[in-house]
Amino acid sequence: MNDKTLIIVHRRELVEQAARHCRLAYPDRNVDIEMGNSKASPSADIVIASIRSLTSGDRIDKFDPKQFKLVLVDEAHHIVAPSYREALAHFSLKEPSSDSPVLVGVSATLSRADGLKLGAAIDQIVYHKDYMDMIDEKWLANAVFTTVQSEANLSRVKKDKFGDFAIGSLSKAVNTERTNDITVRAWLANASECKSTLVFCVDIEHTVQLTEAFRAAGVDARYLTGKTSKDVRDEQLRCFRNQEYPVLLNCGLFTEGTDIPNIDCVLLARPTRSRNLLIQMIGRGLRLHPGKKDCHIIDMVATLGTGVLSTPTLFGLHPDEILDKANGKDLKDKEYEPRSPDAEEPETPDPDTLDDINLTFTKYDTIYDLIVDMKSEKHIRSLSHYVWVRIAQDKYILSDASGWITIEKNSLPDDSSLSWTVHYVTKFTSPVADTVNYTRPRLIATGPDLESVVHAADTFAGSKFEERYISALQPWRRRPATPAQVTFLNKAKLRQEAIRPEHLTRGQATDLITKLRFGGKKRFEKNVERRRKEANRAREVERLREKEEVRVGPVLR
Q: How far is the C-alpha of 128 from the C-alpha of 249, rounded, in Å?
């Protein structure tokens, strides 16, 4: 009889949490755990299993697929990972038939950092509720945001294979005495009245040292890491849930699914370029709890614009926007003029060389305060460590000597999930005419938004293109433009005055040439013409003002 349910989860804490809630929801059902030394009995109605234990050795073989009516995958953005695909294959869900159990996946972040298609395992998204709607409908607590311009320098932080900051390199940049002091001062200035603050740190060392900084300021702060024993972890969590101390620091433990509803402040001391990770961290504080009005999110944002996906970016603001407290509905129509995509970043001194620390706090009272359009090239480079170049409105290109990849927004109102596309064109030499030709654009990926297709395109580009051509971190990009580049750009007559090598870097020149090669000159000329007309209008306004001005003195005849 196929009436059993299997719930697959990602981590130990989530196994125990799921079992606890299942027993509360279904008191007449036999709920068992399959994890570590815990073995589910054959009579279990509901089995909660960690994916690691389930796929360890032949452990999965004891579960007869014919006895299960439902396989539910929590944190379903993991579902295309090899271990999950192995589990799905055992339950005849890789190529399902009418006898296969039903597969249901749930996730608050239904996308992957590597851009892999979840459609390889999931047929259809049958229900989606945006968490902003959930806040409106009172399913989640409201969020108040504060970003802190802490002057942390992330310009030399290395990236991992998914484009996020590499942990070791990030820790060296963030875990300094000065930055930790700024973080504590930011909390004291903005959230000292909060009863339960969860702090996300970079690594264990950062967690320990930031905890000491809180304690030095007289705050009862405690920490948990992956090395903390289960007994200590359980006891510290119990005390934190009971609000016996105000600040709990962690690294990598409480990003997914952890249920601590009393959290009324989340402090992001761990910069990230990952949209999913940011949503997960913020989400820890949005659970409803008696007496909880809202959750205060404090984001320690860097000033260099090197791709930190801060809370403004997540909710639609330009990454350089610094927030100040205001009512969300008042700022819903907030205007923001994006920078020119070619604008150079100002140099910022290393924070440890500064004599004074200037902290800028900015707050928004609701998520709607953070929603504005962002279409600049700066934005796409906050999502990717590759040198995507905008060549038209909502169209970007990444190229090397072998071909190019385009990301483009399409007008497909009937299917918003396909509104962004990624195409690949490669170069080849004709064996007959010995001429260079290009393939037709091949569709690589689709997605509902820019962020999702950028991750897919980056994963594909990393397998096809040479890193030295496409990485924004290559040293050659910071050198002066070459004579050949300057000659090419001057022939294009982009400006009245001649361009000289010291006017722009080799990377900037490369990007500008890419714009010209792929149709950007027309857009450039339109912008020049627009600026010319604006200047003429300004001169005309000034002339009229002078004409209408009444001056003391003889009247001209």
A: 31
Is the alpha carbon torsion for 455, 49, 199, 287 positive or negative? Answer: positive
Q: State the pairing for strand pair 294-301/142-149.
A: parallel
CA distance 195 to 261: 12
Pairing of strands 197-200, 247-250: parallel
- Whole-angstrom distance, CA of residue 43 vs CA of residue 113: 39
Rounded Cα distance between 154 and 308, Å, is 8
Gap between the Cα atoms of 456 and 433, Å rounded: 35
Nearest CA among 170, 412, 174 for reference residue 300: 174
CB 136 within 8 A of CB 291: no
Cβ atoms within 10 A of the Cβ of 486, count?
A: 19
**pLDDT average per 10 residues of sequence, the chain (557 residues):** 88 86 93 92 93 91 92 85 89 85 82 58 75 81 80 75 81 89 91 95 95 96 92 93 96 77 93 76 89 88 42 43 36 33 35 40 46 48 86 89 91 65 85 73 86 87 89 90 87 73 85 79 58 66 50 39
For residue 163, with 0-12 CB atoms within 10 Å meaning exposed, 13-18 middle and 19 or more buried, which class applies? Answer: buried
Determine whether 360 is exposed, middle or buried from the number of CB atoms within 10 Å of its CB (0-12, 13-18, 19+): middle
Could you tell me if 91 and 72 are in contact, meaning their C-beta atoms sit under 8 angstroms apart?
Answer: no
Rounded to 5 degrees, what are φ and ψ at 74?
-85, 155
Measured distance CA(156)–CA(170) in Å, rounded: 9
Measured in degrees and rounded to the nearest 5, phi and psi for residue 86 equal -65, -45
Which residues, including other chains, have CB under 8 Å from residue 374's CB and lie 6 or more apart? 313, 316, 317, 318, 336, 338
| DSSP codes, 246-287 | SEEEESSSSSSS---TT--EEEE-S--S-HHHHHHHHHTT-S
**Interatomic CA distance for residues 85 and 185, integer angstroms:** 46
**Who's near 119: CB < 8 A, 6+ residues apart?**
none
Separation of alpha carbons 8 and 71, rounded Å? 7
Separation between Cα atoms, residue 247 and residue 267, nearest integer Å: 10
DSSP letter string over 295-364? EEEEEEE-SS-SS---HHHHTT--TT-------TTTTTT----PPPTTPPPPP---GGG-SS----EEEE
Q: Give exposure, 218-227, as e/b (b: 16+ Cβ within 10 Å).
A: ebebbbbbee
pTM of the model: 0.55
- The candidate with the shortest Cα–Cα distance to 305, out of 319, 291, 316, 293, is 319
User: Are the C-beta atoms of 257 and 279 separated by less than 8 Å?
Assistant: no
> Computed over its alpha carbons, how large is the radius of gyration of the chain?
27
Assigned token pair, 334:
């907030």
Q: Which pairs count as long-range contacts for 436-439, CB under 8 Å and 24+ apart, including other chains?
A: 438/403, 439/403
Determine contact, residues 351/337, Cβ cutoff 8 Å: no
SS3 of residue 184 by DSSP: helix
